[in-house]
Design brief:
Elements (H helix, E strand, L loop, with lengths): L2 H6 L2 H8 L4 E8 L8 E9 L15 H14 L2 E7 L1 H6 L2 H20 L5 E5 L10 E4 L7 H24 L5 H4 L5 H10 L11 H5 L3
Helix pairs in contact: 3-6
C-alpha cells in the first residue's frame, strides 16, 4: 500500500487520538446481499494511535492478501470478535436488524476478551440502536478508516471460510465459488436441487411461490 493511502486511512483515528480518545473499535459486516449463508460481523479494538495493519476495504484486495491481513490484524489488535446472524434469523427479522444484531454481538465478544470499553466505535454506514457505546457511523467507512477496514477483513474472511465448509456439506451448489451470492450457477443449482437449510427464504420468495 502506498504511504499516502495508508496515511489517509487513519484520518478518523488521528482525529480521535487528538481529542483524547485512546481506545477505539471498528465494526463492519460481510454477507448482507447473498441468497444463502449468514451475515458475519467483525469487530477490532485498537489504540487510536496504532499500530495499525495496512488494511483496506476487503472487497478491493485479493483473497490471499485478505488471509495474510487477517493474521496481522489479530496480532496487532487489542482484541477482536465476530458476530453471526444465520439465515433463520435473517428470515425471522430482516436483513438490517439481523446485521445490527451480529454487529452488537461482535463488539460484545471483542470487549469481553479484554474487559475494555471502547471510547468510540466506528461503524461502516449503519447506526446501532440501543447500543451501549458511543458510535460514529461512517458511510463507505471500510474505504476511509483503517479500523473499519480491519473489521471488514475479519468479517469477510470468517464468512468466506464458513461458506467453504458449507460447500463440502452441499457440493452441488458451488458455495466455495460464489459464497452464496446470486450468480447464474447458483440460481441454476436452486432450480435443480431446491433450497438448502442455509438459504434465505425471505430473499427467494418468488422461487418459493413457484414451488421450487
Amino acid at each position: 500500500m502506498k504511504p499516502e493511502r495508508f496515511y489517509a486511512l487513519q484520518q478518523y483515528e488521528r482525529q480521535l487520538a487528538s481529542s483524547g480518545i485512546r481506545i477505539i473499535a471498528g465494526v463492519d459486516e460481510a454477507g448482507r446481499g447473498p441468497l444463502a449463508g449468514p451475515v458475519a460481523a467483525g469487530c477490532v479494538i485498537f489504540k487510536s494511535d496504532g499500530p495499525f495493519p495496512e488494511a483496506d476495504d476487503s472487497k478491493k484486495i485479493s483473497e490471499k492478501k485478505r488471509d495474510a491481513l487477517y493474521e496481522e490484524i489479530i496480532e496487532k489488535a487489542l482484541a477482536w470478535g465476530v458476530g453471526l446472524a444465520d439465515s433463520q434469523l435473517i428470515d425471522e427479522v430482516n436483513i438490517l436488524q439481523a446485521t445490527q444484531m451480529a454487529m452488537k454481538q461482535a463488539v460484545d465478544v471483542a470487549c469481553g476478551k479484554i474487559g475494555l470499553t471502547p471510547e468510540m466505535v466506528l461503524i461502516d454506514h449503519v447506526r446501532l440502536p440501543e447500543f451501549s457505546y458511543p458510535q460514529m457511523p461512517i458511510t463507505h467507512g471500510d474505504a476511509l478508516s483503517v479500523t473499519i477496514a480491519s473489521a471488514s477483513i475479519i468479517a469477510k474472511v470468517t464468512r468466506d471460510r464458513m461458506m467453504m465448509e458449507y460447500a463440502k456439506q452441499y457440493p452441488e451448489y458451488g458455495f466455495d465459488k460464489h459464497k452464496g451470492y446470486g450468480t447464474k450457477a447458483h440460481y441454476d443449482a436452486i432450480a435443480t436441487y431446491g433450497l438448502t437449510p442455509i438459504h434465505r427464504r425471505s430473499f427467494l420468495k418468488k422461487i418459493l411461490q413457484e414451488g421450487r
